[in-house]
Amino acid sequence: MEILKKMMDLTKGLETPFILLDLEILKRNYKRLKDNLPFVDIFYAVKANSHHRIINTLKELGSSFDVASASEIEKLLKLGITPDRMSFGNTIKKESDIRFAYSVGIDYYAVDSEMELEKIACNAPGSKVYFRLMIDSSDSDWPLSKKFGTNSEHIKSLAIYAKTLGLVPFGISFHVGSQCNNKFKWREAMKEASKIFRELKLDYDIDLKMVNLGGGMPVVYDKPIPTVEEISEVIKDSIEKYFYFVKDLKIIIEPGRSLVGNIGVIVSSVILRSKKTDGEWVYLDVGIFHGLAEAMGGIKYQMIVEGKENSKLKTFKLAGPTCDSIDIMYEAVELPEDITLNDRVYILNAGAYTTEYATNFNGFYGPVVYFVEDLEFEKTRANSIEQKEES
Ligand SMILES: Cc1ncc(COP(=O)(O)O)c(C=O)c1O
Predict the structure, then answer these.
(1) N-terminal to C-terminal alpha carbon distance within the chain
(2) What is the pLDDT of residue 324?
(3) What is d(CA 38, CA 61) in angstroms, rounded to the nearest whole number?
(4) Which residues of the chain fall below pLDDT 50?
(5) Which of 29, 178, 212, 231 to mutate to test the pocket of ligand 1 (most atoms within 8 A of CB)?
(6) Residues enclosing ligand 1, CB less than 6 A?
(7) Collapsing DSSP states into helix, strand and coil, what is residue 246?
(8) Residue-level pLDDT at 287
(9) Most CB contacts within 10 A, which of 22, 47, 119, 159?
(10) Domains detected in the chain
(11) So what's the pLDDT on residue 379?
């Protein structure tokens, strides 16, 4: 709520849709994670929000970065981030992207298939590869398990194959699913990963060195979540319990949502309210194509309608402005019963996976990006000019 109060004040008169981002909250999020897991290297998942000011802030704080494509790598290089602070975490890479990554000096690549290993051996010879373990992500609101990762037996054969291809089998990664509501998922994954470490060592003399804890830490949307502190405790316990036999274990984590989710609020306007046979509809100037794609899955954003915080609630269908019927955020959502044209709707904790998904479909542009620090600066300047003129 802190950002909301600040922003209603700062953004009066700005045309919607826009997103307001607060880099001070980002700094606090990073510090909180680092304080809880001081021995873990943080690789921010750039895909969550690749705005250059977010990247720069994290760079200054000492973060490393998880990248998914050549253009993300290029962006980071331009911002002065060195390749030793990048890991290529996408298991589905274009060959040309692998070549590019190798040519600039990236050394870590995620894999979950033979062909990906062959592509890396050919285009990034001698590199370090880590294997993505498939984890049940049924406790996550945005599961990622279906498309990525593989089972332990397959990982062992991939590690052996990697060696024959001249690559370095380096570690295991997993992702418990984004917006994970169960802290014990990290324990489950780490237990399974440690078994692979042990078996590869004992049976094949392959020494894995790294465990990559992936993303998954949640932010507050519509229900209580496990905290960073609680998840970190489970991680620390699991390291002690399952990885005590690995010397010089490198541990990395790839947070996306948990670093940037709560730094942003999308501000939109109601552009239509209409009664139909199937119920009442509210249409906003942002929708599935303008940053709210995750509403189609399990993400339930909390929304506040300005000036109507105390109104009685009623169930509506909520949709975006485009001419596509997939552009529906929620079939049933509680909004103030007196919501009407031009009301401002604040979509909270919308800093992650929103502007990254935004398109200009139908000529409706996604949210303009503003930063709290800029608006505060402008406000201070305007106040001091006003004071000077008065005196
Ligand atoms: C490889 C990888 N790492 C990290 C993340 C970040 O996950 P989250 O935003 O849940 O922290 C993702 C998200 O898709 C991912 O694909």
Answers:
(1) 36
(2) 95
(3) 13
(4) none
(5) 178
(6) 45, 47-48, 66, 89, 144, 175, 178, 214-217, 254-258
(7) coil
(8) 97
(9) 159
(10) 89-255 (3.20.20.10), 262-374 (2.40.37.10)
(11) 77
